[in-house]
Amino acid sequence: AQTVTQSQPEMSVQEAETVTLSCTYDTSESDYYLFWYKQPPSRQMILVIRQEAYKQQNATENRFSVNFQKAAKSFSLKISDSQLGDAAMYFCAYRTSGTYKYIFGTGTRLKVLA
Amino acid sequence: NAGVTQTPKFQVLKTGQSMTLQCAQDMNHEYMSWYRQDPGMGLRLIHYSVGAGITDQGEVPNGYNVSRSTTEDFPLRLLSAAPSQTSVYFCASSYHGAGMGGELFFGEGSRLTVL
């Protein structure tokens, strides 16, 4: 069975600095999707970034980028130029291609210090 | 475009009471699901549906019922509420057509407290 592990329950970063949130997963599949979701205090779950496993190029969305290491089964999220609005819980999620089953990690709470 | 709409946002129940959490989406997504979020445990799948008339159990289905009579609606029923069902509940939907990443679209969540 697939699993997703986020080993950092909480992280802190100074405003304008860079922070990396880690995520590892376990699967025997070769085709899958990986996601990072942000949950601010409003509770709304917001998609931050998505990575298709067949793509070697790391996904980027403005200040957010991933380091996708397929062989190591690692999918870390880098936030550059951190802003106060980035403070949130961040969840890593996995889905095998062709299935509807999504698996979430336990989340990392990010604090941004002014 | 409303996206995924969940009601109610907050609810307090007494042990043994029943209630229904409503979920509706207007994006014509075939996949709909219910998750519960508990501290330190991430999101756990309760039930899901891949189309009208089709439902299946997720990781933590006990104590919950679902049905899917239309593409748009996917209500979650608590048959006899227990304190262990105190949680935040999320409805989410997605579309898995060709070229689509199938990311989940979430409702705003419903905080349920069972006394």
Features:
heterodimer, A: about 110 residues, B: mainly beta, seven-stranded mixed beta sheet, four-stranded antiparallel beta sheet, about 0% helix
What does this structure look like?
The complex is a heterodimer of chains A (114) and B (115). The termini of chain A are far apart. Chain A has strands at residues 3-5, 10-14, 19-21, 24-26, 32-39, 46-52, 60-61, 64-69, 74-79, 88-96, 102-104, 108-113. Chain A is mainly beta and 114 residues long. The model of chain A has no long low-confidence stretch (mean pLDDT 94). Chain A is built from no helices and 12 strands. Chain B has 115 residues and is an all-beta fold. In chain B, the strands form 2 sheets. In chain B, strands 2, 4, 5, 6, 9, 10 and 11 form a 7-stranded mixed sheet that branches. A 4-stranded antiparallel sheet of chain B has the order 1-3-8-7, with no helix packed on it. Classes of the chains: A mainly beta (114), B mainly beta (115). The interface between A and B is medium-sized, with 22 and 23 residues.
Summarize the biggest pleated sheet of chain B.
Answer: 7 strands, mixed
Oligomeric form: heterodimer
- Measured as a percent range, the helix fraction of chain A is under 10%
Count of individual beta strands of chain B = 11
Order of helices and strands of chain B: EEEEEEEEEEE
Strand-pairing-aware structural class of chain B: mainly beta
Approximately what portion of the residues of chain B adopt beta-strand conformation?
over 45%
Radius of gyration of chain A, in Å, reads: 14 Å
Biggest interface: A-B, 22 and 23 residues
How much helicity do the residues of chain B have?
Answer: under 10%
Rounded to an integer in angstroms, the radius of gyration calculated over CA atoms of chain B is: 14 Å
Molecular shape of chain A: globular
* Percent of residues in β-strands of chain A: over 45%
Q: What would you call the shape of chain B?
A: globular
Uncertain parts of chain A: none
Average pLDDT metric of chain A: 94
Low-confidence spans of chain B: none
- What's the count of strands of chain A? 12
Mean pLDDT of chain B: 93
N/C terminus separation of chain A: 41 Å
